[in-house]
Write a structure and sequence with these properties.
The structure is a single chain. By secondary structure, the protein is an alpha+beta fold. It has helices spanning 22-31, 39-56, 77-85, 101-105, 160-172, and strands at residues 89-94, 114-125, 129-141, 144-147, 156-158, 176-182. It has a single domain, classed as Cathepsin B, Chain A, CATH 3.90.70.40. 28% of the residues lie in helices and 23% in strands. Strands 1-6-2-3-4-5 form a 6-stranded antiparallel β-sheet, sandwiched between helices. Strand 4 (144-147) and strand 5 form a beta hairpin. It is globular, with a radius of gyration of 16 Å. The two termini are 26 Å apart.
Length: 193
């Protein structure tokens, strides 16, 4: 899906090691700020959300569902939403794909508030344990996008057709797609069925 779109030379692309910190790397890659979000910050948000959940119901789980019990990451969407909201971004809108596919469901990708997308796809650890993998697709210029998946060896440049194909591929694999925009400037039109 490489479109031949040139990428700016200083593009931040944090890579993931053995841990499950794809959410942290996705946020930092989306923000284009290496190390902007830390494990400690995401763990803190996960704990806050868990405390709030426990106050709301007596049926709350014993272990925190917002992060890995082993401290390896695997953060929930709530943790990502809060971390982005703390930075003036909103990802509460989901891409709703109907019969027209991704192309028919996407908002105007030229709209100023749209920063990019965070994709949450099903995956496994050691081919056995189900987890979800987070990856960002970020606007890098007019009509230019980059897949900054922390498992990729390098950013993957995308033009608009490449963006549509990449998002359709992820949706076909069972992924959820969050639209990320500047707060107060939703993606618009992304909820059509």
């Amino acid at each position: 899906m490489d479109s031949g779109v040139p990428l700016r030379p200083a593009l931040v692309h944090e890579r993931q090691g053995w841990n499950q910190h794809c959410a942290r790397h996705s946020i930092n890659n989306l923000l284009q700020q290496r190390g902007a979000v830390t494990k400690a910050e995401l763990d803190g948000i996960a704990e806050e959300l868990f405390r709030a959940e426990r106050q709301l119901t007596s049926d709350a789980p014993l272990f925190n569902p917002n992060k890995s019990a082993l401290g390896l990451g695997n953060y929930s969407v709530g943790v990502i939403e809060r971390a982005l909201r703390n930075r003036g971004l909103d990802c509460s809108e989901r891409l709703r794909v109907g019969a027209d596919g991704v192309r028919g469901a996407l908002p105007d990708t030229a709209a100023a508030p749209l920063v990019g997308f965070i994709v949450n796809r099903p995956s496994t650890v050691c081919f056995v344990f189900p987890v979800r993998h987070w990856l960002p697709i970020v606007r890098v210029g007019p009509g230019a996008w980059a897949n900054l998946d922390s498992l990729r060896p390098a950013p993957l440049p995308l033009d608009l057709d490449g963006l549509h194909a990449a998002l359709q591929h992820e949706v076909d694999r069972g992924a959820d797609v969050l639209l990320v925009s500047r707060s107060g400037g939703g993606g618009g039109g992304a909820t059509q069925e």
